[in-house]
């Protein structure tokens, strides 16, 4: 028989072959019960449960790669991961079966066919986070917001500091110590506090984020809101590139990954 070359491999003409096709998984999760996204020894993670569910439904071992890491207790309203699956399938059936196996705090919304080399992490063009603070006490927000009972914050001054983030690129001062990265540069395109009733939300969008970066920024901005830090001191902290100069990290339960964007070419490909 004649060997035929295909973009997914080489096979004998006339034989049936299973090709690996790449798909993006769109999902969401409440991170309260998990030690973050990434698989860890002796800890339950979202990636572990998602991989087990897909492997069970597809009846083959699969490897799932996420758009990034989220720490213990951090939530994701929109998260993407990619997986390679043999041949075509009905997405609705897989979604239904996977969701039936997943716990109630993890949900798969969609499975999207992509270009063969699309990567959920490296091809992400931007990521957006929200950090939620409830100005009061509410038992229904204990796992999804940082609650301030009596503290009054200077929100306008916090927004002045937040706007300064858009003028810098090196955010080493807000990165977790001993993080193995090639660069501490990030392009922040939007950073703003918005208040609706008792809910105060910090919105931030960038091309990438460092480990613990958003929580460190929020914790430092809160110091400004408490009048314990000036705008000049905030500027000096950023330029120092020293994590010990910044404020404490905000608690994990208030942080949400809310949006991940990708180039349209990832989905506009040969079917």
The N- to C-terminal Cα distance equals 27 Å
The portion of residues forming beta strands comes to 25-35%
| Helix content estimate | 10-25%
SSE pattern, N- to C-terminal: EEEHEEHEEEHEEHHE
Number of strands: 11
**In CATH terms, what is the architecture of the largest domain?**
2-Layer Sandwich
Structure description:
With 271 residues, the protein is an alpha+beta fold. The chain has two domains: 3-122, 2-Layer Sandwich (Alpha-Beta Plaits), CATH 3.30.70.580; 126-258, 2-Layer Sandwich (Alpha-Beta Plaits), CATH 3.30.70.660. The chain has five helices and eleven strands; from the N terminus they run E-E-E-H-E-E-H-E-E-E-H-E-E-H-H-E. Strands 3, 4, 5, 6, 7, 8, 9, 10 and 11 form a nine-stranded mixed sheet that branches. Strands 1-2 form a two-stranded antiparallel ribbon. Strand 1 and strand 2 (9-12) form a beta hairpin. The chain starts with a strand and ends in a 10-residue tail after the last strand. Residues 1-17 have low confidence and may be disordered.
Key traits:
271 residues, alpha+beta, Alpha-Beta Plaits, 2 domains, two-stranded antiparallel sheet, 5 helices, 11 strands, 29% strand, globular
Task: Give the SSE map.
Blueprint: E1 3-6, E2 9-12, E3 20-29, H1 46-58, E4 64-66, E5 75-86, H2 91-101, E6 106-113, E7 126-135, E8 146-148, H3 155-164, E9 188-196, E10 199-206, H4 213-225, H5 231-240, E11 255-261
Parallel strand pairs: 5-11, 7-8
Antiparallel strand pairs: 1-2, 3-5, 3-6, 4-5, 7-10, 7-11, 9-10
Helix pairs in contact: 1-2, 3-4
Describe the structure concisely for a colleague:
21% of the residues lie in helices and 29% in strands. With 271 residues, the chain is of the alpha+beta class.
């Amino acid at each position: 028989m004649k060997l035929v070359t295909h973009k997914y491999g080489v096979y004998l003409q006339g034989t049936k072959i299973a090709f690996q096709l790449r798909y993006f998984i769109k999902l969401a999760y409440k991170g309260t019960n998990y030690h973050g996204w990434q698989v860890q020894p002796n800890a339950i993670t979202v990636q572990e449960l998602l991989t087990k569910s897909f492997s069970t439904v597809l009846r083959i071992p699969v490897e799932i790669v996420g758009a990034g890491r989220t720490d213990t207790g951090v939530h994701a309203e929109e998260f993407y991961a990619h997986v390679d699956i043999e041949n075509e399938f009905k997405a609705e059936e897989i979604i239904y079966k996977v969701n039936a196996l997943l716990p109630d705090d993890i949900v798969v919304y969609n499975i999207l066919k992509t270009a063969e080399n699309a990567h959920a992490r490296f091809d992400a063009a931007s990521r957006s986070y929200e950090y939620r603070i409830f100005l009061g006490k509410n038992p229904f927000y204990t796992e999804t917001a940082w609650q301030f009972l009596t503290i009054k914050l200077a929100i306008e001054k916090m927004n002045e500091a937040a706007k300064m983030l858009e003028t810098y690129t090196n955010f080493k001062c807000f990165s977790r110590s001993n993080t193995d990265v090639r660069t501490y540069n990030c392009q922040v395109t939007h950073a703003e506090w918005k208040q609706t009733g008792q809910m105060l939300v910090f919105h931030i969008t960038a091309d990438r984020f460092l480990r613990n970066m958003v929580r460190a920024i929020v914790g430092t901005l809160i110091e400004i809101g408490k009048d314990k830090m000036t705008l000049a001191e905030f500027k000096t902290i950023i330029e120092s590139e020293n994590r010990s100069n910044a404020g404490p990290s905000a608690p994990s339960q208030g942080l949400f990954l809310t949006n991940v964007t990708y180039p349209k070419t990832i989905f506009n490909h040969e079917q």
